[in-house]
Amino acid sequence: MSDSIRRFLFEGAPIRGEIVQLDATWRAVLERHAYPPLLQTLLGEMMAASALLSATLKFDGAMLMQVQGTGALQLLVVECTSAGTLRATAKWDGLPENAGFAELLRGARCAITLIQPDGSQSYQGVVEVVGDSVAEMLMHYMQHSEQIETSLTVSADGTRAGGLLLQRLPEAADDDVDRWDRVRMLAGTVEASELLGLAPADVVRRLFHEEDIRLFEPQPLAFRCSCSKARVESMLTMLGPEEVESVLAERGHVEVTCDFCNRTYRFDPVDAAQLFTGGTRSPGSTTRH
Ligand SMILES: [Zn+2]
């Protein structure tokens, strides 16, 4: 089953794993913006990694994974919610033709933020981007920010994104002292064609056929953007009447386009005026005497 994540355990060992494959979810991101090939790969790999890491964290709300660049690549962002929805976008300006990961992300920072359902931030870890790939960047993040030994392999092409994660749980020792190194090495042999082309359960069985694995049921994932007219209205209200009126004077209307889903919200002068007139009273707000 594509667009899902599956958890698995090594029986009797303090090692857990996750495997993810994204299909329609990833294509929904690609359909909304034309990304240069390198950004496509980075964003798809980050999307797979985001699903994998968020599955290892206990949280209610959303996990935001951001890479903030200092050069042509300005921002890569993936949001994954505890309900299993994902969205992603990137900002760039004049990407060099043959730039590689290290060149593009020199001086960049990688941050992971947890956002509670009320919108407040509950946690943020930030590290400098090191390494030569999204997987190396995030393994470094996990080592430094979470102190959890993590093995991560991610891959993406123009139609699918996929990934495999293993974590050694720090609280328990393993009787089989070589197991972590052994399974981590096996995980490192997985090919992009396997992550993207085979059923995730088959990948896990193939890689770890000599280990005693318990594979859990797949959890579905889907693309969904949380933008809405109400959220755009509240953002415009916060900007204030002067700002909104100056845009109206210049263009005759106010347009706000969501970076994630590319949906445009348009406000004519009448709509815009209503933002600042206090609104209508909803039935729920009437006072009972
Ligand atoms: Zn949106």
Q: Segments where pLDDT lies below 50 for 5+ residues?
A: 280-289
The computed structural class is: alpha+beta
User: What Rg do the Cα atoms give?
Assistant: 22 Å
Task: Tell me about the largest β-sheet.
Answer: 6 strands, antiparallel
What's the helical proportion of residues?
25-40%
The number of helical elements comes to: 10
- What form results from the Cα inertia axes? elongated
Determine the CATH superfamily of the largest domain.
Answer: Hsp33 domain
The CATH class of the largest domain, by name, is: Alpha Beta
E-strand count: 14
The count of domains is: 2
Structure description:
It contains 10 helices and 14 strands. The chain starts with a strand and ends in a 14-residue tail after the last helix. Strands 1, 2, 8, 9, 10 and 11 form a 6-stranded antiparallel beta sheet that branches. Strands 7-6-3-4-5-12 form a 6-stranded mixed beta sheet, covered by helices on one side. Strands 13-14 form a two-stranded antiparallel ribbon. With 289 residues, it is α+β, with helices and mostly antiparallel strands. It folds into 2 domains: 4-223, 3-Layer(bab) Sandwich (Hsp33 domain); 229-285, Alpha-Beta Complex (CBS domain Like), CATH 3.90.1280.10. Helices cover 34% and strands 29% of the residues. It binds zinc ion.
Give the secondary structure arrangement, pairings included.
Elements: E1 4-10, E2 15-22, H1 24-32, H2 37-56, E3 62-68, E4 73-81, E5 85-92, H3 101-104, E6 109-115, E7 121-128, H4 134-146, E8 149-156, E9 161-168, H5 179-188, H6 192-197, H7 200-207, E10 213-215, E11 219-220, E12 222-223, H8 229-239, H9 241-251, E13 254-257, E14 264-267, H10 269-275
Parallel strand pairs: 5-12
Antiparallel strand pairs: 1-2, 1-10, 1-11, 2-9, 3-4, 3-6, 4-5, 6-7, 8-9, 13-14
